[in-house]
Design brief:
CATH class: Mainly Beta
Helix content: 10-25%
Low-confidence stretches: 1-24, 156-164, 178-183
Distance between the termini: 69 Å
Mean pLDDT: 77
Number of domains: 1
Oligomer: single chain
Radius of gyration: 21 Å
CATH architecture: Sandwich
CATH topology: Immunoglobulin-like
Number of helices: 2
Strand content: 35-45%
Length: 183
C-alpha cells in the first residue's frame, strides 16, 4: 500500500498553507474607568488604558466621545501626550507627541478630566501603529459624560470623529520615518 501523500506533495501542501495563512495584527486595549465626585458638583473621570501584552501595535492616540455640554476641565494625561479638546467638542483625544511616548504592548497610561455631566455609556477609540508603520484602529464602549436621557451613541460615530485624527497620525508616522536631516 502506497502512502496517501508523497513527501513532495506534503511539502507543496505545507507551502501553500503558509502562503495563504494570514498574520493577524492587532491593537488590543483594556479601558477601565473610575468615576467619583469632584469639587463644585463635577464628576471626575479617570481612564486607565492598558495595551495588552498580546497586542502587536503601540497606542499613539486615545479618545472618548463626550456630550457637547460636558464642559470638560482639569484634563490630565501622560507626559509627552497632547490633548485635543475645546469646550463644546463632542470628543476628547490625547495623542503622543513622539513615537517614544507611544504606549507599548504590556504597558498602561492614565488619562482624566472632570465634567458637569453624570456618567453614561460612551464610545472610545484607540489609534496606533504596527512595527512596520501600518496604522491600526480599535473602538469600543466605556463610560463618559452623557446628557441625562440621551441615547447611547454607536461606536461607529467615533470613527467619523477620528477620521481627521487618523489622517494627522498617518502624516505624523510618515514624518517619523523621514530622517530629521532630510526634512
Amino acid at each position: 500500500m502506497s502512502p496517501r501523500f508523497t513527501k513532495s506533495a506534503f511539502l507543496i501542501l505545507l507551502g501553500l498553507c503558509a502562503l495563504t495563512s494570514t498574520a493577524r495584527a492587532d491593537l488590543i486595549l483594556s479601558v477601565d474607568v473610575a468615576t467619583s465626585a469632584a469639587s463644585n458638583g463635577r464628576t471626575l473621570y479617570t481612564y486607565t488604558v492598558q495595551n495588552l501584552a498580546t497586542s502587536t501595535a503601540t497606542l499613539a492616540s486615545f479618545g472618548v466621545q463626550v456630550a457637547q455640554a460636558a464642559d470638560l476641565a482639569d484634563v490630565t494625561g501622560p507626559v509627552g501626550w497632547d490633548v485635543d479638546y475645546v469646550v463644546g467638542d463632542a470628543s476628547i483625544f490625547w495623542t503622543s507627541s513622539a513615537e517614544s511616548y507611544d504606549l507599548a504592548p504590556g504597558g498602561s497610561l492614565v488619562f482624566g478630566f472632570t465634567s458637569v455631566l453624570t456618567p453614561g455609556a460612551q464610545p472610545f477609540a484607540g489609534i496606533g501603529f504596527e512595527p512596520n508603520g501600518d496604522f491600526v484602529f480599535v473602538d469600543g464602549m466605556t463610560t463618559g459624560p452623557l446628557n441625562a436621557g440621551a441615547a447611547v451613541p454607536e461606536p461607529a460615530s467615533v470613527v467619523l470623529a477620528a477620521s481627521a485624527l487618523a489622517a494627522a497620525l498617518l502624516a505624523k508616522a510618515r514624518r517619523r520615518s523621514i530622517p530629521s536631516g532630510a526634512r
